[in-house]
Design goal:
alpha/beta, single chain, FAD/NAD(P)-binding domain, Flavocytochrome C3, Chain A, domain 1, six-stranded mixed sheet
Amino acid sequence: MAQHDVVVVGGGNAALCAALAAREAGASVLVVEKAPESQRGGNSFFTAGGFRFAHQGLEDLRRDILPDISEEEARAIVVPPYTDNQFYDDLMRVTEGRSDIDMAEFLVKRSRPTIVWMKGQGIRWILMFARQSYQVEGKHHFWGGLNVEAVGGGAGLVEMLLERAAKVGIEVRYGHGARSLTIDKQGGVTGVVVRSAHGFSEIPARAVILGCGGFEANPEWRTRYLGPNWDLARVRGTRHNTGDGIKMALDIGAQAYGHWSSCHAVQWDMNAPPFGDRKVGDMFQKHSYPLGIMVNTQGERFVDEGADFRNFTYVKYGQTVIRQPQQTAFQIFDQKTVGILREEYRIREITKAEANTIEELARKLEINPDGLVRTVKAFNAAVEDKPFNPAILDGKGTKGITPPKTNWAQRLDTPPYVGFGVTCGITFTFGGLRVDLRAQVQDIEDQPIRGLYACGELVGGLFYHNYPGGAGLMAGSVFGKTAGECAAADLGFKAR
């Protein structure tokens, strides 16, 4: 079998960015993907396609990322600047200061240039009107630092990346699951062993880039590392991310790194299938909880729904659901907010009930009626009389109840009341491999393993406890591009 300069393992955003960067430098590139072609795209396919990156506001975005926004359209849009310092501070704040400082700074500094590079690769961008803005006084106000998505969401992102890969001569082999790495006597990587419908075969390579995701689809590993009941979580995305890339690297002496007992998780429709549905995509998620209240089966609130913009709480709160009775929670709204709930609340595949009284709603959703009535009564009495503005941290909170609600607290007093049942959906795991700022995998003595690079969700060190929305795809692109460039450079190719 002919040797390729670079073999990339995985077929999602990070892996394809790595493949494109290596090919751009002049290397021959092969992508091996465990999934069949009908299930291509990894976890990236199931995302909203949102990217968090530093910028200087709307005019800066219009310059080279969103040039099609007209002057008339721009007058109706408010996009605050999102500086390097804000991005870095948000990342450190939500990870409780544990994010690897060097990796965090690298991600922040490379974020905007990488978006521009991706645009040059044919990726098209739009503002996230439906998910990240509210209309206030006739203008769309964007909030929370997450403003831009790929056209077509995650599915569109994957399609555009693969279209570019085909155009520049990158071969993709589907149904080829990597099982192990081959090494020489000095410990350098010389190729990868894959399993396909024809059995096992060895693919020689001068460099291997691992971009095949974490272990979120492996219930045994979830229970081992995340703890009790995590084997019961629904998997938001692909069924193929079972930790294979991590295991292959650890088997040849790579260093484990990051928060192995934590993960990205969300509130996910309680009757969603066990793995991601390619037709519904990410619409099983339910992220308008800051506008209402969340309760468990006993009718008790268990988080501060308005502690921050949902971008900075949805992962942490998704994790809390797994610890509730029956791994279940309910989001409750009244007619004051139903009209501004996100689009995912209006799909056909949804667990929902509506009623004219709180007690009736509780019975329909199988919540303890006395508990929910008591909770709503106490919540309504605690709400402060301040102006409501969902586009800012409005300080409209509660007094005298635990947990409090810090922002966007409105009395539930306008029937009919609507409730949505959710469980925990796991997106990806935070533990993985240690890489340097060249995306080269490190061994247990902090030395680079020759010929081995990694990117995407199997890289540890960035996310701990929590996660700022849109940072995952961005990190995958930044470290994917870096992995491809550095793998090619180490083989003697020079960036064009």
